[in-house]
Design a protein that fits this description.
191 residues; alpha+beta; L,D-transpeptidase catalytic domain-like; 2 domains; eight-stranded mixed beta sheet; 6 helices
């Protein structure tokens, strides 16, 4: 019993020494030097939806599309599907890749096959030169869209690589993106 109370006393003494060292040591002075973080107030959901975006960033590796406004992420959406060969820069028509680089939204329209469609300005001059080196056409009609809906869309959701190089989002997500993005909005597609 004496041995147990001796251990308890030793533990209590050690704890008190640690606490007093924490308050009296150099760390006590750094508390006065700490800079308070300024967290901007969150805008209401309705206010955020009404704003148009400044640009879009696609991260192929992470399978994410993010919409940016005033230097901040406004919304992020998971990419449901890309092409069968999504890694690397798109080089020619039929290579099943999503382009990489700087583009812009070239058109918007309702799609019979994919809910809504936001066209990406692929191919640019660089893309055309790259495809020409291989003696092949660069392709086109790359964009961000939804799925086919119905049973076809249901089965597509199980395949992460069913497009020919486009970026497919959930239909509810493409509806929101469609309202937030104007033709001419820059898009950066990263590996």
């Amino acid at each position: 019993m004496f041995l147990g109370s001796q251990k308890a006393a030793l533990l209590l003494t050690s704890l008190l020494l640690c606490l007093s060292a924490c308050q009296a040591g150099p760390a006590a002075n750094t508390a006065n030097q700490a800079i308070a973080l300024q967290i901007p107030p969150e805008s209401s959901e309705q206010e955020a939806v009404e704003r148009k975006v400044d640009y879009i960033v696609v991260q192929k590796r992470d399978r994410l599309v993010s919409l940016w406004k005033s230097g901040r992420v406004l919304r992020t959406y998971p990419i449901m599907a890309m092409g069968a060969n999504p890694v690397g820069q798109k080089v020619y028509e039929g290579d099943e890749r999503t382009p990489e680089g700087q583009y812009f939204i070239s058109d918007k329209h309702v799609s019979q096959n994919f809910q809504k469609f936001l066209g990406i300005s692929y191919p640019n001059d660089h893309d055309k030169k790259l495809a020409k080196r291989f003696g092949l056409p660069p392709g086109g009609q790359v964009g961000i869209h939804g799925d086919r809906g119905g049973m076809n869309g249901f089965w597509q959701r199980f395949d992460k690589n069913w497009t020919d190089g486009c970026l497919a989002l959930r239909n509810s997500d493409i509806e929101e993106v469609y309202t937030l993005v104007d033709v001419g909005t820059p898009i950066l597609i990263k590996p």
